[in-house]
Here is the input.
Amino acid sequence: MSNNASVPTSASNTPIAIDDDESPLETNSDPSLLPITSRHTSAVWSDFKRKRVGDVIKAECNHCSKLLAGGSKAGTTHLKDHIKICPKRVCQDLRQTRMFGTKKNLNDKNDTMTLAPYEFHQEDGRRDLAEMIILHEYPISMVEHIGFRKYSKTLQPGFKVPSRNTTRKDIMKRYELEKENVATLLRKAKGKIALTTDMWTADNQRKGYMAVTSHFIDNTWKLQSRIIRFLYVPAPHTAEVLADALKESIQSWNLDLRLSSITVDNCSTNDAMMEILKGVFPYGSLLLR
Here is the structure.
């Protein structure tokens, strides 16, 4: 027996040598089809069949029937590239699918499991992790807890939990993005901007913070409220110190010419702060002067 076996053809009496034909793994009654042998170890051959076209061997896609080079010297890289973009291949990769439980109707007690395409992205996981820490005020150090890392690995083995420093950078990146979104919203608002401000003291730190919130009507006539600053104000909290902090907040957002009003708590320090600010900002910009 020779390694190069010959196969008779219906179109010609000339035999064609079948390359690497060892131990056929599958056969077909179609005389133009060639067997997948033990030497075709690539997983890509589950999506292709070997076919004789004239005097050459082609690889025919099982999904769209496109013919590609299929000889032993052609390799399989071009076949893998085709599978990624094949328009008729529904599921790109079984490893990139997951099961979903669905019900045909609300009264149906039996769940129906279906496979749906799924693609994992590390960046999406990092973004959602940063958002979770922000929303629930979790400590950033939680990403280094053994229990959290084990839990994350169980949910998604492909997700690499970032370090504390990387998570901090992701949070600051989210802050800059949200800040730009608020700035864009304020720029598009055609009316004036009203501000409210209040002091807040952290019990565990005994430090004072100033919160500044903007209020305005957007172009769809909806009331919008956005916090534009939450900054630490060093003691003592005198009228001058508070006035400087509020002035810096207003000017950093370019709102000094768009103010309609500033609302504060009823206390003597705030009264003195307002007297200072009235001498700083243009007299005509305020709604009631």
About this structure: Confidence is low (pLDDT under 50) at residues 1-28. The longest strand covers residues 207-217. Helices lie at 77-85, 122-136, 146-155, 164-188, 239-252, 268-278. Residues 85 and 213 are 50 Å apart (CA to CA).
